[in-house]
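Take the subject:
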Amino acid sequence: MNRFFQGAHAVRTGARRACLGAVAGALLAWALPAAAQPQSPASAPAAQPAVRPIKLALVESLSGTFANTGEAVFRNLHWAVERVNERGGVPQPGGARPLALARFDSKGQNEEALSALRAAIDDGAQVILQGNSSSTAAVLIEAINKHNEREPNKRVLFLNYSAVDPILTNEKCSFWHFRFDAHADMRMAALMEVMREDKALKSVYLIGQDYSFGQAVLREAKKQLAAQRPDVAVVGEELHPIGRVKDFAPYAVKIKASGAQAVVTGNWGNDLTLLVKAAREVGYEGSFYTFYGNALGAPAAIGDAGIGKVVAVADWLPNVPTRESEAFYLAFRERFPKPQDDYVHMRMQLMIEALAQSIERAGSTDAVAVARQLEKASVQLAGQSGSMRAADHQFQQPLVVGVMDKKGAPGVKFDVEGSGYGFRVVRQISAAKAQQPHSCQMQRP
């Protein structure tokens, strides 16, 4: 077992060995359709009943334009679930139970996500995991609210790792929904820590995806710029269809023509990769202040032109300068060694740890009991920590801001996806400083 896991988790070897066979059987039982599960001959001795797994369902884009983002999330969650199961599963009064993770493809469409939600609940899922679309998260919150009211004996929880429209923990806050990523206003405030000190910056271009999250990013960018950098002019503002633009050259030409010294964008996935690639190809030399510029092809797409110019905010970056962080990252790369699989997020690991902690403390998988424990969850991993704010179910955690540079440059021990480029941490923001006020009026059962 990797040294990081040995240090981070005290595993009772005897308990682990006793349950591994049951864990494997339980996971296989959910992975296979009933008709495909092996049948014992009538003469064979009766098998011991398998330990019932705690079923988690990932509802995400696993095909189509954003399939790469969905697969990247799955790797993160799969690794986190493996870690829990390697130490014996989640302790419960009747014996430890493993976590089982299943995949349900939303195909990037809200209606498909709702169908996937129904299928997951019918399959016995007790926890729904989603994040790569705030609009999808909003419809899932509404659907889960209705389901839990209609079927109190089959209630489910919704754990959100990436849908960061602030409305989800404000006007649309729900007792059943917990967000583990910093929302857009928190991320923008972190970026502003760097923009505020860039005295040479006098003009910016705002561009984003035309849906709730992209709109929220542009709205907050204008608000925070006006408050903290009123000397910076917004010389362009644009929203584009999400996941539909194949050629960003016309947008890049407008950005260059505007004379903007920097671009501020919340774009993610291929919408970010194609945007920065187009900007490079038209000769745009300004900076990019991004939410997600540190992964999924963006650094490779922009190349040397991004050195010192692409800024990204995150809950954690591989080059956070601690030994614990380095060991954590190396453990992930050992588990997923292919360069294209290099996409690890601390918050997703902390989310699964918080869930396991809360189920253990609840002593059951009852949704209300687990939710009440999640409201006060506090977790640590590899030197990183975070805690849930009960008032709005917004996870509070430190944030970091990094600037792109070549691998091997000071502070850039690790690159991204084998691109030769990584991110040097230039700002670390405490959880207390990163937090933002909320307007949630939580309705509890």
About this structure: The longest helix spans residues 67-86. The two ends are 42 Å apart (CA to CA). The first strand starts at residue 54 and ends at 60.
